[in-house]
Request: fold
Amino acid sequence: MQRSGADDVATRYSVGMPQDKVAFAKRVVEAFNRRDVDTFFAELGTPDFEWWPALTRAYEGGGFRCYRGRDGVEGFYADTDETWEEFQSVAEEFRDLSDCVVVMSRLKGRGRGSGARVDAPIWNILDFRDGRVWRTRAYFDRADALRSAGVSE
Reply:
C-alpha cells in the first residue's frame, strides 16, 4: 500500500499530532462504543468535529449527511438509538498514514424492533488536526475508503 501523491509525508505531518496516533485512534473507537461524548470532546475531538457516517449514505441512497460538533455527535447517537438496539464498531486493523489513521472494523449491531443482526466490514478514516481528530469519514467499500485516504495498493 502506497500513499499517492509526490508530496513528502514529513512535511504534511502536523506539529500538534499525537506521537502514537494508533493508540489515540483506539481511544476514539472506545469512546464511540461507550457513547462517551464528554471524553471525546474533552480529550480527542476538535470542537468543530465532523462525522460522515457510512450508514447515512446507505439509508439516503448515496446521499451524504454530516454530523458536526457536539450537538451533531449527540444527534448521531440519538438517530442510531432509534434504529439499533445494539450498535458498536469492533476495530480489527489500524493504519497510520501520517495525517490520518484508517481503521478497518466490523460494524456489529442488532436492529431495534426486528432483532436482525448485522455484522459488516466498515472502514473509518480519522483525520487529525492540532493533535485531535477533526473529521471521521466512514465507508462500507474498502476501495472508496482507501481512495479517500489517498492510498493506492
Notes: The chain has six helices and eight strands. Strands lie at 2-3, 45-52, 67-68, 84-96, 100-111, 117-129, 132-139, 151-152.
